[in-house]
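Recap from last week: sequence in, structure out.
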Amino acid sequence: MVRRGVAIAIVGVAAVVVALGTGLGIGLRDDDATPAPAPAPTPTTVSGLSGAAKTNALKAALTPRKVTMIPSEGVSTTSSGSSRIDGRSLVEVTPLEVSSFSSTSDYATAPPAETFVDAVSTEIFQIPNMVLCYVASVNWTANLNTGPYIAEIDPFHCDNSDGDRIKGKVTYRWVVNATGPDIDDASDTRDFKTNVWVALSDTPEMPNIDTEMIVKRDDVAIKSDKILVKNFTFTYQSPTGSTASQRIKGVVRRECETTDADSDCTATGVTWWEEVTRGSNSFTAGAKSRAENDITKASFQTIDFDNGSTQAGQLVTTATLVKTKAYGQSFCDELENRSFFGERYGAYDSNGAKVNLQSYVHLQATGSDGKTYNADLHYPGNLYISDYDYISDTALSTAEKTIAQTAFTDGNVVEEIVDWDDPILNVNKRLKVSRGVLYKFTATVRSASDYQGATITGWFWDDTNAAEVEVKFRYDSDANALVLSSKRTWNGGSLNTNSITTPRALTMADIDNQIIRCWGSIFGRGSASLLNLTHFKVSDAQTVPPGSLSSHLALTCGERCIDQTKLSSASSHDSQFYGSPNGYNDARSTYKKYVFDKDTGSLKEDVSGTLGAEVVMDPTNSFFDSGEVHMVLFEATPANLDTLSCTATTDVCEEPNKLDVHYEWSSSNWEGMAWLEDPSDSASKKFMDAPLQLQGKIPTDAVLLRSPSGTDYSGVNLNVRYEGGWLGDAPFICFNPMTGSRAAPEVDQYGNEECDDNNGYHRRPDVLIPDGTTFKQPSTGDRYVLKLESGVEMLAPADASACSGMSYDTSITVPTAADYTAFTMPTKPSMTGLSVKGTDKVS
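Predicted structure tokens:
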């Protein structure tokens, strides 16, 4: 097994700039992929497109793509949108008719989905592929010849392999200047040229990078149904005179061989060379490949930064197999029998318009020192104050950070930035800040078959054995039943051995004939209770924004719930997480009362009619650098107390999740409720929009492509969260790209599904949703259709003997320094006054 750090072939910051060019224009055989057929209305050919459709086609040709050495088949994801299944009780969503969308709608003019192969060769380019995600957000194709601008990039979705990124907390600000020809004007002979000044503001130990990308005008070929880039050169280097401890230089050249008679590339290739200098030590890496007539041949050199050694690798394919030598190991994979999953999607409303929610807003405020400071406000109301000076392009000092924090406190007037290019459009707002957020959980009864295939964890108290018991189960569509796979008893601080050696049908006796609370990623932010062997009671979570209630909300929590006196001494999660009343040992007479203020969004403990301080995290306690306050609460109305079987004060209430409505309070550095008000009208409030919580079903009439796990998702219900193209809470499997092995997610005692990262397994979506599939937002009834933007193909491992007759091409040599030619970087424009035009913070 190759450790993750060793498997990275490209230096960290080097990858930032390599990736700027690596996937640009042509993918390594990606352009050989068969374009996915588009649902009606069928667009005309590229040469006949105009307006938005033609702009999108050019963007698709020039937008960076992920890199792989293995040819892509392409995906077909069309569907008529039918959703009826005979004999099964599943949620029906009336399909939107995409054929009724205008031919100029966002849905109809969206370019075909791109695809790439996720395999060993992808692991070689792991970091460049991460940064390709960044570079796709620079948006230079939409800003040709407009002068220098700033591209804002959030690393949350692109650089979060360790799961330690917080959405909106860090913003990279890169300067971009892109020029190029009018592709329709034969007299416009300019070449495409893009310079990006790369700076990673939260990693100051890494060097800045100068980059230059060139695509000659004559190398852009417009075919009947696509645009090809025949050649491009991308060069990168540390700035002249750089004194950084690490310096870098490198080049990427890409080729797509084609003639006027060809409709596609007849051959493709890539040359990449890079040198990194650290002090007196230099390291080089590189790759060279060529793909033609179903055969790809490549040689590459990677670096093991643990010991500074280099590792040679090679790759060769036939029409049916791929053989790879990398990291001292040999791999054999099938090119046939691939599986597929969707990586990114676009969501479109009932008119075919792409969804653009405002889940964030940029703010600025004047500090006590007269300087301008910046912050971002994200859903549900998380306020992130930048520790970077946007004007001078430098980090804030300790004193300036304190001033910035003060400038964005509750009640202060700030400016909402509407258009970075025109400060006159900025709007004065009063910033309101509550350091906690209240979620309302509304329950509905759902069939267990709606969640088939997902591992679900439940806990209950076994009265007979006086023990806490954990069970794991999933709905099996073949057995048409919930199948129990694990049952373990909590004993002395640990779980006993699983007593279920062979999975079998779950019985009520297995759960002591109780209603048990369950967890699983398929339920999203909400939770569920298993009512019986066929149905769940599922609770959907929605924020309770200030101003949305007609009166203050009186809430109750168990005796061990938090009060302000516990916050400064908090030292573990045990002192902050509360699910009480827990249903078995805390009497109602000991419960605590709280009041949620309808106007301020604060939560305070009510002690005999007197309200105490807010129950929120203590920012001076280092525990809250990663810890949080979390409480489960309910309204103690007579009806609710009766439902919880505790009408008498001496009773112990059942758990609040049994109610149709209960509440949860969270307070942390990453979860609060800030909003904006009109300074002259406090009733005029602006909150950030929530991601779309969507529910729908995979059509049964579509030709579904094989899923990575082999699961047939035809007719399966999905509950997903859509934000910025990514789908949260969709089914996933665990994949080891070095071995090709796939495994079901591991589920911890809290129901969280994770992959075994320590053994090389990474999370991969397990379903490809057909274009035009309709989803509904349960809270509003609004319907949306999804359309694939980026798909991934996965290969199946083959026995090594299958590749025994394949030979590497030893004549392909790894590039050397001779392949690199330095360039003169233009003077970096001052960031003062530049517009912000590129961003990946779209939701």
